[in-house]
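Tutorial handout. Part one gives the primary structure; part two gives the three-dimensional structure as tokens.
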Amino acid sequence: MNNMKILVFGAAGFMGTYLIEELLKQKYQVTASDISSIGEEYYRNKNVPYFHVNITNADEFRQFEAESYDVVVHLAATQPANVSEKKYDPKDYINVNVNGTLNILEFCRKKNIKKVIYATSHRNTQGLWINGKAIKESDGRSIKYSGQYSMFSISETAAQDCVLHYQEQYGLTGIILRLPPVYGYGPHTEIFMNGKQIKTGFQIFIENALACRPIEIWGDCNKGRDIIYIKDVIDAFIKAILAEGVSGLFNITSGKSLSLKEEVETIAKVFWDSDSSPIVIEKPEKENHIDAFVYDISKARSELNWYPKYSFEEMLLDYINEADNETFKHLLEKRQKMFEENNLD
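Part two.
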């Protein structure tokens, strides 16, 4: 048994589920916390202590009064992919992402917990996504103040600054893991885009390949972006938990640009369910809404001794294995419930 005690907020989500599974495999003592009733049932069935906590309510942290922890992992957030047009309220981003983070940090201060690891989106660098330049942590931020990610980026940036403040003011070690789109089995079938429920391009490509239908690539097929597989992200969390004398912001990405063409051709190679050759059709006249960005991961390599291990093809093959085994199928149930709740009048 590993003596280190880890408390995970946002435990019922995509990353939380994968993280706790790995922590349990490595014999850490893990406690799960989330607002989800589905997550509560899942963890109780696995004999993992579970605390039903709304992080925006400081009083609910009293549930932990008798407990002690070495590290807190903070994954709880409100993000656009989970918010419909009907349910959009900018105050929700501030309440959950800023006030919720402050409540977690204050909880850590009062409980003398020495380290907090905070997962955050890369979206507050949107103004730096130019000319294929690999963005470093030292390049700072550049928020886009319009569009569906604006309040999300504003709130997460404030939350990052709160983590750094508690580090400087109270000696709490804060490690911020900045993530691009994270792929993996569970939440990547449907999302909200600009408040509208859509099927993701990733899922459409897979479905067309499985049905041996032509796969269309819209827009500039050479436009690329930096993505990462969930299991590589989880490895970064483990490295951050174990790291000593390390703090601050880290890019946790593949460190390379995967073009839309490479993505589609690899999906076709892996999923095309026929002896015939995949049919890929380029349609540059149609807009694809893909953002191009790439990040420098040298800091994570040198200070966390972390680097991504999965190629995109290896990711897809592992994704198939996870789907076939119905690994974490409760994530699909949770997501469907989320869509239903968002679409209620």
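Part three, for discussion. The chain has one domain: 5-342. The longest strand covers residues 115-121.
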